[in-house]
Design brief:
The complex is a heterodimer of chains A (307) and B (437).
Chain A lengths: L18 H23 L1 H24 L10 H11 L7 H16 L12 H12 L1 H4 L12 H6 L7 H6 L11 H13 L6 H17 L6 H9 L3 H8 L10 H21 L6 H18 L9
Helix pairs in contact in A: 1-2, 1-3, 1-9, 2-3, 2-4, 3-4, 3-5, 4-5, 5-14, 9-12, 10-13, 13-14
Chain B lengths: L24 E2 L5 E5 L9 E2 L6 E2 L4 E4 L8 E2 L4 E10 L5 E9 L18 H10 L12 H4 L10 E6 L8 H8 L1 H14 L4 E7 L3 H10 L6 E6 L8 H9 L14 E5 H13 L5 E7 L7 E6 L4 H7 L9 E4 L6 E3 L12 E5 L3 H4 L10 H5 L6 H9 L3 H6 L10 H5 L6 H17 L1
Helix pairs in contact in B: 4-7, 11-14
The chains are: A mainly alpha (307), B alpha/beta (437).
Amino acid sequence: MEKLFQVSSNPHIRASVTTARIMQYVVIALLPATVFGVFHFGIHAFLLIAITVATTVLSEYIYGKCMKRKDTIWDFSAVVTGLLLALNLPPKAPLWIGVIGGMFAILVVKMLFGGLGQNFMNPALGARCFLLISFTSIMTNFDCDAYTGATPLAAIKAGEQAPQLIDMVIGKTAGTIGETSMIALLIGAAFLLIIKVIDLRVPGSYILSFVVFILLFGGRGLDINYLLSQLAGGGLMLGAFFMATDYVTRPITPRGQYVFGIFLGIMTGIFRVFGPSAEGVSYAIILGNLLVPLIEKVTRPRAFGKK
Amino acid sequence: MSKLTFRGGVHPYDGKNLSKDKPIKTIVPKGEMVYPLSQHIGAPAVPVVKKGDRVLGGQKIAEAGGFVSAPIYATVSGTVKTIEPRRVVTGDLVNSIIIDNDGIFEEVSYTPHDVTTLDKKEIITLIQEAGIVGMGGAGFPTHVKLSPKEPEKIEYVIANCAECEPYLTSDYRRMLEEPQKLIDGLKIMLRLFDNAQGILAIEDNKTDCIELLSNLVQNEERISVKSLKTKYPQGAERQLIYATTGRAINSSMLPADAGCVVDNVDTVVAIYHAVIEGKPLMNRIVTVTGDAIREPRNFYVRIGMNYKDLIDEAGGFQTEPEKVVSGGPMMGFALFDLNVPTTKTASALLCLTHDEVSAMEPSPCINCGRCVEVCPGRVMPKKLAELAQRHDEEAFVANDGMECCECGCCSYVCPAKRQLTQSIKSMRKTILGKRKK
């Protein structure tokens, strides 16, 4: 018998983009913020990032081994989760926080639900909220060598003197490792937008609706300084461009993505303005994650040519 | 002016440079010719010859098996060897008439017509009798398309010159080498529809064709050239109608419902041959291409020729192909063996050294939404593929699964390399099969 050719259903060609490539791009996009965080907060921040990423990758590897599953660490999604979680930790948090958080993110939020693509909540944020509730004092202590005391948003909320706006934009303020530098985050976000790994539907509608909410209900009227502090001084940029855009946990329908973004903007506004904490991005996003199936259901696209 | 296009679609590597600059070469068949009785949508044709009969080129060897069907003509002279099931490009065994080519190429005599003396009915009968079907790949009998319930409501007759499938250049060569036949064919079609405008819809990567045809139709009041954005699947019927007229039809509607009739380049030229020259459908242009082929180019092929002979004419393989596709890479059929005949709908033979599909293993869906973004049918391929795998027919239909045109954009673009088109396609096949019963 002659050698037979390969057969398969159409199409017979494939675009070059792969899951691993997308994840690598996200890691690259997070590097400016990561590097800034390390230089800004010092060597401990670097160790915390390293140990958190190592934990997420190793957890996924060991879980796969124990469950006799295919090794999935080379899709780089565990690296993204570890890095995002680390960037959401206070710079002086003990290293074991990174280990516990990393394990929780991968084992509980991701793998137990079936691994990549099956989790209903962003693993990094799920772990962050777990840590915030369990180890509140550690997770809300932003003291470090350079700064003592509150993050810009906490200061504003308490009626204290907030840092200069320019410092918030550059990132020379207190905060989690990766959230302080608006510029570094926007550089990474621009990269992802240009190579079309993400689009503006979620982050755009998120930030816009948040701005509208603050203008209406922030209690400061048209206070540009206050508004910009709200945008630059907290976790909004990191959340809007890198976590709300997580493919797995945002709606897949184009219209649903706008709904999702608007929901996040409103919830973040409510949490920040009316809640006890100055922050609200993480909780807003995981709450939004839970609504994704519903949003997708009501925003199903209309098929071509159907009325 | 914004470009004429549709929403969604993809931009794969087009590979057209391999074959686009070489003129069409006519090839002379030798040996056995195979004519499957089902080369079209509808009832199979019924043989009117028997084993041992001597036939001439251009002689009818099978007649239409109904209204939605088409007759088949011998393309060489010779003797009917047998009538038996043979393998075709889809992998199915189809009853076929086998003719031993005697190498004389004796043909029947054809009766040319003066189109101005023919009425509409006579024109349609000539097309029907010539065995013309949609030669872009679908194989829908052309006379059926040309016989809508209310011909006076047809406003556009669109010649599909998009050729959006990568690698294919047969329509391109045809437009460059025989533009007048295309225009004359379209004019014949316009005779059938008094209120219609003719449109030559061409993708803007073929600027030379746009220029050439625009010049030729300068003084034609009823024909215009429209330049479309180069994007796959610009030539899909529904997308083409939308791009050229702004009218959107769904899967349960016909182009005629939007006042349109669409036929591809080769089909329009076949209409010209049938009506003006009185010749039945016997030839087509086939692009033989791909990185495994030594001399990729277009051939003027007699229907019934074996694919192996086409490869030989193109200099054979320069590398061992992993995959051979009949048709374009997005919607063509993969062949496990070259021993199949050229049919009325065979637009290309694509030979690839590397198979990108088997090289990449599917991994879990990450919900990235690329399939939704590119889907020209605006359905949710990810969701439909999931429903198909669970075999949930009801939900599949409720989620507009039947609106899929199987263009392949979702599988093409999927970073997890999932077989979305395949899952959706097989589910559709199951459901359509049940509906027929």
